[in-house]
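Re: that chain you flagged

S.,

Sorry for the slow reply, it's been a week of failed gels. I finally had a moment to sit down with the sequence you sent. For the record, here it is as I used it:
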Amino acid sequence: MALLRAAAAADLLRRHRRAPLPLLLSALSPPPPTTPESCPDGPSPVAPYFAPPPPPLCRRRRSWPPPPPPPRVSSSSYVGRGILLPATFSIYSPLSTSSSASPDGSPDEDSSPPHPSPAAAPPSSWVDRWLPQAARPYAMLARLDKPIGTWLLAWPCFWSIAMAAMPGELPDMRMLALFGCGAVLLRGAGCTVNDLLDRDIDNKVERTKSRPFASGILTPTQGVGFLGLQLLLGLGILLQLNNYSRILGASSLLLVFSYPLMKRFTFWPQAYLGLTFNWGALLGWAAIKESLDPAIILPLYTAGICWTLVYDTIYAHQDKEDDLKVGVKSTALRFGDLTKHWISGFGVACIGSLALSGYSADLAWPYYPFLAAASAQLAWQISTVDLSDRLDCNRKFVSNKWFGALIFGGVLCGRLVS
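Prediction finished late last night. Pasting the C-alpha cells below so you have them in one place:
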C-alpha cells in the first residue's frame, strides 16, 4: 500500500507541478475514518479506498448557475470502483405503477396504481349501437335496454290469454301481439312516471343516479311530453279491445300513476306493484271472454301478486342501504333478516294459487309438470340468493323471466291437450 501511495503522489506531482503543498499532503494522507459524528445520516456504505479520484484542479472560476447536485445515494446502494450499482434494479417511468407484494413474493392484486387507468366502459346495449343520439335518453327512460320489466308485465297477460283459449286450440296470436306491444308501452309509461316523481331521490341512490332525469340529460318537460306520446300509443292498442276490456284497462292507470308514491308511505310498495303489474291477468281474460270468471282469474291474479312480492323484494335488497339514507320504504327493509322466510311463504302461496287456477280452468295434466319445474326455479332463487350481494340479487331477479315462461308453457300445453 505504501508503494501504491508513493506512485500516486509521484504521478500527481508530474501533473500539478504548481499545486500548493497542502493539497499534495492531503492527497498523500489516507482519508479520515467515517464516524457517526461526521455523517449525521449514518455511516456511508462507500468503501474509502475504492472511491473515484478527485477531479483535477482547475483555476477557472466556477460557472453560474452551478451544476445540479449529484443524486443522493441510498443505503440500499453501494459503490464499486467508481460505479454506482443499486441493490435492486428498476426502471423508473412516470406511468409505471408500484405494487405491494404478498409474503410469498407474488404481486398483490389489490394494490392500486398511483396513476389509475381510465375505467373500462360498460358493455353497450342495442340502444347505444342502433338508435340515434337524440333518441337514446328516451329509450333509457322507457327502459328499452332492460327488457326484464316488460317480460314481468307481459307474462300474466299471456297466462290469462292462453287460459281463455278454447280446449285443443292455440291462444289468439293477435291478442298476444297486442298485449306484448301494450306491455312495452305501459311499462315505459310507468317508468317515466316513476322517474319524474323520484328524480330528487334517484340522484342520491348509486344505482339510479345515472337515469335521464336524475343526471339532467332530460328535463321534466321533455319527460311529460314523452309520457303523453306513450299514453297516446297505448290508447291506440286499448281501442282494439272490447268495451269491457277498455274500461278495465283504463282503470289500471290509477295504479300506474300512484305506485311511485307508495314507497314514501308504506313498507309494502312491492305489494302495490303486484296489483299494478298483474292487472293483465284480469285484462287478458276479459279481452277474450268479455267477462271475468272469479274462480279462475282471482287465483291467477293472487299468484301474480305473490310472485311479484318474491322477485321485487329480492330486487329491493340492492338499494336497502341507500333507501335507509334517503328515507324511503320497502319490503326488503320491513323483512330484514327474515326476508327468506317471508318470500318462501309468498312463493308457496304463488304456486298454490297457480295450481288452483289451472284446476279451475280444466287444464290437462301437462300443466302440472311445468308448474313443478317453475316451483323448482322459484325455490332455487330463494334458497341461493345472497341478499348482501347486489349482483346476485339482480341475477336472481332477471331469472324470473324463465319462471313466467315455464308457467306459460304449462298453460299452453295443458290447454292444447285438454
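What I noticed first: The radius of gyration is 39 Å.

Talk soon,
D.
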